[in-house]
Design a protein that fits this description.
Layout lengths: L7 E6 L14 H15 L4 E6 L7 H6 L4 H25 L4 E5 L8 E2 L2 H9 L3 E5 L9 H11 L4 E6 L4 E2 L11 E2 L1 E2 L1 H6 L7 H9 L3 E6 L5 H6 L6 E3 L2
Parallel strand pairs: 1-2, 1-6, 2-5, 3-4, 3-5, 6-10, 9-11
Antiparallel strand pairs: 7-8, 10-11
């Protein structure tokens, strides 16, 4: 049986990862597939925190362009992440995986408030903890929320799940000659303006020396491969 090289990680999913082939919303089949992959990781004894975006339901930037106040738009986006988190929680619990949703915005009927010590205690008990509501503040993305929560739970790495195999020097969808990096520094990501995570999230990871592994979620088994230390995707560090 493969052995995990990480004890505790933070998995970052985009909201779009839950859409499947739909133009928006949540595809239950895709969510169940993700839940099974997470279950394989939990079975290895890995403690897993999870942050999911809300872009499949609501995009604050697009709403702002349409005339919605930025602060209001960002709070609407945070609520979208709660919907996605509850969907993932349901799918995980159907797999028999104990799960807790902790929200940065208080809504006690459906989620716990985010409390660092409680989150760590859940992880130590083998529960998956889904951090919803972003940071609870406007003007911060769910990438920044992922970096922040990773620091708070003392994760060993952030696993950033995407639709491509890793980080490229240019968009691999548009350019067939795009080259993928196996490893890249935080500074190079920032200076080259590579669209991995936003600058605040990358800077936070750099300042705290937290590695980021960027990989393709659409390849079955990739989460487990990364957890087991296989050469998958791109590592951002040093």
């Amino acid at each position: 049986m493969p052995k995990a090289v990480y004890k505790r990680v933070l998995l970052k999913l985009s909201g779009e990862a839950l859409m499947g082939d739909r133009p928006s919303g949540i595809d239950p089949h895709v969510v169940n597939l993700i839940a099974r992959e997470i279950g394989d990781v939990v079975a290895l004894g890995v403690q897993l925190g999870l942050v999911v975006g809300g872009g499949n339901i609501f995009r604050g930037v697009e709403a702002t362009a349409g005339g919605v106040d930025r602060t209001t738009a960002d709070y609407m986006g945070m609520l979208a992440t709660v919907i996605n988190s509850l969907s993932l929680q349901s799918a995980l619990e159907h797999q028999g995986i104990e799960t807790r949703v902790q929200s940065a915005i208080e809504m006690k009927e459906i989620a716990e408030p985010f409390i660092q010590r409680r989150a760590i205690r859940h992880l130590e008990k083998g529960r998956v903890v889904i951090f919803a509501g972003g940071t609870g503040n406007p003007y911060f993305t769910t990438d920044t929320a992922a970096s922040l929560r990773a620091m708070e739970i003392k994760a060993e790495a952030i696993l950033k799940a995407t639709r491509v195999d890793g980080i490229y020097d240019k968009d691999p969808v548009q350019y067939s000659d795009a080259t993928m990096f196996e490893k890249i520094s935080y500074t190079d990501v920032l200076t080259k303006s590579l669209k991995v995570m936003d600058a605040a999230a990358i800077s936070l990871c750099r300042d705290n020396n937290l590695s980021i592994v960027v990989f393709n979620l659409q390849k079955t088994g990739n989460i487990k491969r990364v957890i087991c230390g296989q050469s998958v995707g791109t590592v951002v560090g040093g």
